[in-house]
Design brief:
globular; 6-stranded mixed β-sheet; endoplasmic reticulum; alpha+beta; Immunoglobulin-like; 5-stranded antiparallel β-sheet
C-alpha cells in the first residue's frame, strides 16, 4: 500500500531535462565512415521514456529508428546516416530534435536539439578553435526558431541497454559534466587561457546548476 502512495509527481510539459551525446554531428564528404553517426539518448530517471526524432531537413538523413523507447536508467543508440553528400550542403547547419514523453502520455515532457553539418574534409579543419564569425553563425543557427519535420525511420530495432556500471555511474558522469560547465568562464569574461567557444552564458550555467541539483537528489535516493 505504501508503494502505491509513492507515485511519480506530475511533470510539466517541456520541463524534463534530456541528456543526449554528442550535441553536435559533423559529417565529412571525403570520409565514408563519417557519413554514419550515432546519438546516445540517456534515461537516468525511474520511469520509461518514449522518444521521437524530428529534423529540419529530413530528406538529407536516414534515422534508425526515428521513434522508440528507453527503459529506466538505460540508454539507446540512434544511428543517423547522411544520404545527400553534395557540395551545395557544405557548411549548412541542420538540426535534430529529440523529443521525449512518458509511455502513458502523449505530451512532450522535454526535448534536446542537436546540430548537424557537412564539411568537405577533416584534413581542412583548422587546428585552432573556430573563428569568431563561424562561432557566431553556429550559435545563430542553433538558437534560431526552426521548423521540424517527422523523420522517416529506416528498418532495424532500437533496443534500450543498461548503462555500463549501473545508474550510479551515469549519475556521476552527468554530475561531473555539470560541475565542469559551472567551472568554465562566463560569456564576456576576459579569460584568455580558455577558448571563447567554451565560455558559457549565465542561462547555460543556471541549467547546469539545476541539473546538478536534480542529480544530487537522485544520488541521495539511491
Amino acid at each position: 500500500m505504501q508503494q502505491q502512495q509513492h507515485r511519480q509527481p506530475e511533470l510539466v510539459e517541456g520541463s524534463l531535462p534530456v541528456f543526449v551525446f554528442p550535441t553536435e554531428l559533423v559529417f565529412y564528404a571525403d570520409e565514408q565512415t563519417s557519413h554514419k553517426q550515432v546519438l546516445t539518448l540517456y534515461n537516468p530517471y525511474e520511469f520509461a521514456l518514449k522518444f521521437k526524432v524530428l529534423c529540419t531537413a529530413p530528406n538529407k538523413y536516414i534515422v534508425v529508428d526515428a521513434t522508440g523507447a528507453v527503459k529506466p536508467q538505460c540508454c539507446v543508440d540512434i544511428v543517423i546516416r547522411h544520404r545527400d553528400v553534395r557540395a551545395c550542403h557544405y557548411g549548412v547547419y541542420d538540426k535534430f530534435r529529440l523529443q521525449v514523453s512518458e509511455q502513458s502520455q502523449r505530451k512532450a515532457l522535454g526535448h534536446k536539439e542537436v546540430t548537424a553539418t557537412l564539411r568537405p574534409s577533416a584534413s581542412h579543419e583548422p587546428p585552432s578553435p573556430r573563428s569568431q564569425d563561424e562561432e557566431q553563425r553556429r550559435l545563430k543557427e542553433q538558437f534560431a526558431v526552426s521548423e521540424f519535420f517527422e523523420q522517416t525511420a529506416a528498418s532495424g530495432p532500437t533496443e534500450s541497454r543498461p548503462v555500463a556500471g549501473g545508474p550510479s555511474l551515469l549519475t556521476v558522469l552527468l554530475g561531473l559534466v555539470c560541475m565542469a560547465a559551472l567551472m568554465l568562464p562566463t560569456l564576456g569574461e576576459q579569460e584568455f587561457t580558455v577558448p571563447v567557444y567554451l565560455h558559457l552564458s549565465i542561462n547555460k550555467k543556471l541549467v547546469a546548476a539545476y541539473v546538478l541539483g536534480l542529480l544530487t537528489m537522485v544520488i541521495l535516493r539511491t
